[in-house]
Design goal:
With 170 residues, this protein is mainly alpha-helical. Helices cover 76% and strands 0% of the residues. It has six helices and no strands. Helix 1 (4-32) runs antiparallel to helix 3. The N and C termini lie far apart (34 Å). The chain binds fe (ii) ion (2 copies). One fe (ii) ion (FE2) binds at residues 17, 20, 50, 53, 97.
C-alpha cells in the first residue's frame, strides 16, 4: 500500500507528465502552422512519449493500492518566436521534470519506499536521455544557424534515437 505522501507526489507527477504531453502538442501545432513539418513530427512523437509516462504513473499508483487522479491541466503557451525558442523552452521544461523526479526519489528514500524508488529508476535514466537529446538539437540549431531552419527541419527526425522511434512508431 502506498503511503499517502508518496501517492500525492506521484499524482503530482501524473499532472506534470500530462502537462508535458499537452505542452509538446501545443508546440507541435505551432511548428505545423509555421512551416516546420519535421519539428512538428518530432514534437508530436515527444508528446506521445509523455502521454505514456503519465500512464506509467497512473498504473503504478493504482497497482500499489492508491488512487490515480486525472488533473485539470493548465493551458500551455501557444506562441513562440522561432524553432530555437521552442527547443530552449523544451530544455527548460525537461530540467524542471528532472528536478521533479529527483524530488520524488528523495522522498522515497526518506519514507523507505523501496518499491517506488525502484519504479522511478526508469524515469531517472529517461530524464538523462531527454535532456541530452534536446541539448543535441540546440547544438545543431546553433551549428546550422537560425537562418537555415529549412535544412534543420529536414534533418531533425534523424536525430531521434532508434529506441524513441520504435516506441512511438511500432
Ligand atoms: Fe516525461
Ligand atoms: Fe520528457
Amino acid at each position: 500500500m502506498l503511503k499517502k505522501k508518496i501517492e500525492d507526489i506521484c499524482n503530482r507527477q501524473v499532472e506534470r507528465e500530462g502537462y508535458s504531453s499537452n505542452l509538446y502538442i501545443a508546440m507541435a501545432s505551432w511548428a505545423e502552422t509555421n512551416g516546420f513539418p519535421g519539428v512538428s513530427a518530432w514534437l508530436y512523437s515527444q508528446a506521445e512519449e509523455e502521454h505514456l509516462h503519465m500512464l506509467k504513473f497512473i498504473k503504478y499508483i493504482n497497482e500499489r493500492g492508491g488512487k490515480a487522479i486525472m488533473p485539470a491541466l493548465k493551458k500551455p503557451d501557444t506562441d513562440y518566436k522561432g524553432v530555437e525558442d521552442v527547443f530552449k523552452a523544451v530544455l527548460k521544461h525537461e530540467e524542471f521534470v528532472t528536478a521533479s523526479i529527483n524530488e520524488i526519489v528523495g522522498l522515497t528514500l526518506d519514507e523507505k519506499d523501496f518499491n517506488t524508488h525502484n519504479f522511478l529508476q526508469w524515469f531517472v535514466f529517461e530524464q538523462v536521455e531527454e535532456e541530452a537529446s534536446v541539448r543535441t538539437i540546440l547544438d545543431k540549431i546553433r551549428l546550422v544557424g537560425k537562418n537555415n531552419m529549412y535544412q534543420f527541419d529536414k534533418d531533425i527526425l534523424s536525430l531521434r534515437t532508434p529506441a524513441a522511434n520504435a516506441q512511438t512508431n511500432p
